[in-house]
Amino acid sequence: MSKTFLFLLTAFLFLTQVVLAEEFIVTDVGALKTQGKKFNQWWYEQQRVVLKGTGSRGANIDVTLDGKFNTVHADVNNGTWQFDAGTLSVADHSVIVGSGTQSYSFILTIGSAAPADMKTTKGGLPESGSVLPLLGLAGIAGALIFYSFKRKDV
């Protein structure tokens, strides 16, 4: 019994992969790939813009463009969504995109390219946790359980 439990515990720990937290992300601003980055401002030369992204499957995605509220629905199979903003004027536009408790706001500048000196920041999905501390604790717990079954009281 104890060997079976120890085997199952070990197998579970080694077969479990790092899980990424599901996050609402804007993946495309028109033909521009965001690569998961969340800048405060995006520049796009074309006036026709379609925003795309991912979120929870089947979720409502709220898009506010220059104060006008819209709702689109994420795909129930893979969580992808898109919002056709239409043809926008050459100017700065305020965009707020959100789903559930997560939201992302930025300025969309239409009609000009990004400045050459623009700094990049880290973006993408955050890890929900590291598996190494869990493996250490599980190893200690497994050893304690294993040796407690071997111990014979008189």
Account of the protein in words:
With 154 residues, the protein is an alpha+beta fold. It is 21% helix and 36% strand. It has helices at 2-15, 132-150; strands at residues 25-29, 32-33, 41-44, 48-54, 60-65, 68-73, 80-87, 92-99, 102-110. The strands form two sheets. It has a five-stranded mixed beta sheet, with no helix packed on it. Strands 2-1-4-7 form a four-stranded antiparallel beta sheet, with no helix packed on it. Helix 1 (2-15) runs antiparallel to helix 2 (132-150). It is elongated and about 80 Å long. The two termini are 22 Å apart.
Percentage of residues in strands: 35-45%
Give the integer mean of the pLDDT values.
80
Return the string of H and E elements.
Answer: HEEEEEEEEEH
Helical run tally: 2
Shape: elongated
Largest sheet: 5 strands, mixed
Taking the alpha carbons of the first and last residues, their distance comes to: 22 Å
Extract low-pLDDT stretches. 17-21, 120-126
Number of strands: 9
The value of Rg in angstroms is 24 Å
Q: State the helicity in percent bands.
A: 10-25%
**Largest sheet, spatial ordering of strands:** 3-9-8-5-6
Structural class, please?
Answer: alpha+beta
What topology does this entry show?
Elements (H helix, E strand, L loop, with lengths): L1 H14 L9 E5 L2 E2 L7 E4 L3 E7 L5 E6 L2 E6 L6 E8 L4 E8 L2 E9 L21 H19 L4
Parallel strand pairs: 3-9
Antiparallel strand pairs: 1-2, 1-4, 4-7, 5-6, 5-8, 8-9
Helix pairs in contact: 1-2
